[in-house]
Amino acid sequence: METIVCPMGGGATRLYSALAQTLNGSSPLPLSPSTLECHQPADTILDPDFCQALKGSPVCPPDPAQLLRQCDEALKERPPRFPRKFIHLSDGDRNPIRVMQWNILAQALGEGLDSFVHCPLEALSWSRRKYLILEEILTYRPHILCLQEVDHYYDTLHPVLVNLGYSSNFFPKPWSPCLDVEGNNGPDGCALFFDQSRFELLDSANIQLSAMRVPTNQVAVVMVLRCCSTERFLCVAVTHLKARSGWEWLRSAQGSDLLRHLQTLVQKHCGGSTGETSSDIPLLICGDFNAVPAEEVHRRFMTSPLGLDSAYKKLSQDGLTEPEYTTWKIRPTGECCTTLDYIWYSKDTLRVDAVLEMPTEEQIGPNRLPSFSYPSDHLSLVCDFSFKAKE
């Protein structure tokens, strides 16, 4: 199948036109390692606070610590960050794989459509939120970073994180609601980043999720990686399923479609010189599922023959219960405090070594999220994993 490179940037009309020409139903769009990075469009204006044009390449602060200090300086007047701690579940690996899952809130939606009635407009400005988003990422320095509602990929997140050693792929929604907002920065979508010092890319696919063979507006990015230190394979996916009540059946169908694609991709990389089998290749599936734990799509993942479990259940006393909330916001329709975000993992081949705790209601504050302290209505999920020994 032909490689698809996503030349995003510029006006919304041109962006939507390019998408309409490249999307071709629900088939996965494979990207070879050599063409994984979507090249910056010529008319992309790089964020002047983080990047400057030098011989046609983005240049950012040379190290994460310097960039984090830059964020701290820009945010020095803001309230303090949430004091979240890691809950350690085992001695774990000395060099664990840190994974972050986060719906960062698309800028166009935060300012234009989502109506966070108790959040000041100043707190929703990109000039402030971009520092908070990067600070969250730099504080935890994940080796694998799975993001949803990304609409500042090409001008900010991609150039900054590439200069910090990440490789990445971005896949926008076919009909992003961001495009309906005046002054938008293009469509929102899913982005998957990985630390090149820890992993080598073997394969990648962009997937437009289907329901009963009908293409939908939701997408996923999938990568097959090889761990540089252990030579073990790892299949990682990021997705964002259909939102709102009444669409439970669609989320269930989209989840089933994603599981089918993952099984196919894993089987593709079995055997050969490595001798890997499908049961040897762990899965990490991160996303905003827009589904509470009682929904059918959650049950499908729990009972999948792929042997999955939800990492954040490890925070509960019995190890069987999801957190009370991963998102907490107030809209004109009322207050919403619920769990919609998950990190699924292969329980037979991966071990959860540590989980980042949730902030308390008191720490979040009466006006909920987003706020001057936190840039999104969804909380980041961060876990440390290690490979289990092969039997």
UniProtKB/TrEMBL annotation:
Gene3D superfamilies: Endonuclease/exonuclease/phosphatase (3.60.10.10). Pfam families: Exo_endo_phos (PF03372). The keyword Hydrolase applies. One of its GO terms (cellular component) is cytoplasm. Keywords: Biological rhythms, Cytoplasm, Hydrolase, Magnesium, Metal-binding. One of its GO terms (biological process) is circadian rhythm. It is found in: Cytoplasm. GO terms for molecular function: metal ion binding; poly(A)-specific ribonuclease activity. The keyword Cell inner membrane does not apply. Residues 100-378 form the Endonuclease/exonuclease/phosphatase domain. Its cofactor is Mg(2+). It comes from the Eukaryota. Belongs to the CCR4/nocturin family. This is Nocturnin. The gene is LOC114862797.
